[in-house]
Amino acid sequence: MKGPTEWEMRNIIMPLLLSGAKMLDRHCPKCGSPLFEKDGRVFCPVCEHRAKQEKSEMRGVEERLKEKLSELANSLPDDIDELEKHLRAMEKIIELLERYRKLEGGE
Ligand SMILES: [Zn+2]
């Protein structure tokens, strides 16, 4: 992982400093951003932001997969070969959805 970008400095670290969070003299081992302490909790604002962003991106993918799945389920072909392809695609989507769910730590 890269260190904090200029955008992250300006939009995550600066506002945090202004909000009165304490900047520690330690750095995040993952991204190199300074660590902060607030309400007795030490955290890396950049990694937290990135994790949140990744999660919402994944949610977007999940939504699209679900849409596609119901689209496929609503248009099953009569031709047996086509149907098989269709079902295989649906199976793949379901597999992916399950994998995403595991990545999110199971809800
Ligand atoms: Zn970090």
From TrEMBL:
UniProt keywords, alphabetically: Coiled coil
> Which PROSITE patterns does this entry report, sorted A to Z?
HPT
Coiled-coil segments on the chain, per record: 51-103
| Residues spanning the signal sequence | none
Which SMART domains does the entry mention? Answer: RPOL9
| Residue ranges occupied by any HPt domain in the UniProt entry | 61-107
Q: Which GO terms describe its biological process?
A: DNA-templated transcription; phosphorelay signal transduction system
Family matches, as Pfam families: Auto_anti-p27
Q: What is this protein called?
A: HPt domain-containing protein
Source organism of the structure: Thermococcus pacificus
